[in-house]
Design a protein that fits this description.
Helix content: 10-25%
Structural class: alpha+beta
Distance between the termini: 42 Å
Order of helices and strands: EEEEEEEEEEEHEHHEEEHEEHH
Largest sheet: 5 strands, antiparallel
């Protein structure tokens, strides 16, 4: 995002790369990709001093440190978004009050010692918005100029985005959908409207959405709390004889942004049970495939005996095993249901 703005003389690196580091830089931003109207989500990141020199207005060199956050794009109105640091945040000169994002949220760090990382935690609140609308945010990190330390200049920029979603809580009485649309936080508003037009307007079908990014899984037999009964429900119960359309685009999941698709969340024995015993039909939509092959019916599952793949279940749990190994999700070794980590969030909606 920032450039050197000067030429480097020719020299031989012997095949090595130049590693240009910022004197101070932003760390990874932990946030929730998918939010429901009325929810409050945590946004956690840090500012790291990568040098052996102190920075900040209180440091010897007096070079100020400023952080700015603003909404840069997306359909969600800036007035529907509220952002603010936690009231107990340390290391900040003055904590600005929570505000809407019609203007930038700005604060200063008076002192960041050599090698220090200041952890920052804020909350993002989503007001009125339409499902699958998006908001993109940029965080600017600024450092005072060498010859004018009180004048900040951008040295690092990081971004993150949030997609408006919905939570599945069962069906109200009298509502019997024909189709389940399995989406994620990379499903755009225009894509959703296109599916709405196709299924409802052209085919006359009723459908509902299962957002993997919001729900955290795509298990057909896992109990789900419902608003319409004292007993939990399951997808396989609610969807007997129905069709499932799975949007199989790639998206990031969890704090560490693992790249996954919807099929990474599938337990194949559940699909086999759904096809053979629950009369379900599955269609997988691959947006990158040729237009004649972008929709695939799972014929290979229909023709496979239900018990044949039990021995191979391990290969269809690769994301969960990857998470356990690489993200150090601690669980009993005998557990068969290790999960991907949830995004950092605070759910303050009564459901």
């Amino acid at each position: 995002m920032t450039g050197l703005k000067r030429e480097l003389p020719a020299f031989d690196l012997n095949g090595l790369n130049i590693n240009i580091k910022y004197p101070i830089e932003l760390t990874h931003i932990s946030h929730m990709n998918s939010m429901v109207v009325g929810h409050v989500a945590k946004v956690i990141w840090g500012v790291e001093n990568t040098t052996e020199v102190d920075f900040g207005s209180l440091s010897k060199n007096g070079r100020c440190i400023r952080v700015r956050l603003r909404k840069t794009s997306g359909e969600v109105s800036s007035s529907a978004l509220r952002f603010g640091l936690q009231p107990e945040q340390e290391g900040v000169a003055t904590i600005p009050p929570e505000q809407t994002l019609e203007k930038e949220y700005i604060f200063e760090i008076p002192l960041l010692k050599a090698g220090q990382t200041l952890q920052l935690e804020a909350t993002l609140t989503l007001g009125e918005a339409e499902v699958f609308e998006c908001a993109e945010f940029w965080i600017y990190l600024e450092l005072g100029k060498i010859n004018n330390p009180s004048i900040p200049k951008v040295v690092h920029i990081e971004s993150f985005d949030v997609r408006v979603s919905t939570i599945y809580r069962g069906f109200p009485a009298g509502f019997y959908p024909d189709v389940l649309l399995v989406a994620n936080h990379r499903t755009t508003r225009n894509e959703f409207l296109a599916w709405d037009n196709l299924l409802k307007q052209q085919f006359g079908l009723r459908f509902f959405v299962w957002d993997i990014s919001q729900m955290g899984h795509f298990h057909l037999t896992r109990p789900i709390p419902t608003l319409y009964s004292t007993e939990p429900t399951t997808l396989i119960k609610d969807l007997a004889g129905k069709t499932m359309i799975i949007l199989d685009n790639q998206f990031n999941y969890g704090d560490h942004a693992i790249k996954v698709t919807a099929r990474n969340f599938v337990l194949k024995h559940e699909w086999l049970q759904a096809i053979h015993k629950n009369d379900n039909k599955f269609y997988v939509v691959n947006p990158k495939a040729d237009k004649n092959a972008c929709v695939a019916a799972l014929d290979e599952l229909i023709s496979t005996p239900f018990d044949a793949l039990r021995q191979k279940r391990f290969t269809f749990e690769r994301v969960r095993n990857f998470t356990q190994q690489h993200l150090v999700v601690k669980a009993d070794e005998s557990s068969k249901d290790t999960e991907l980590p949830n995004d950092a969030s605070v759910d303050e909606t009564n459901v």
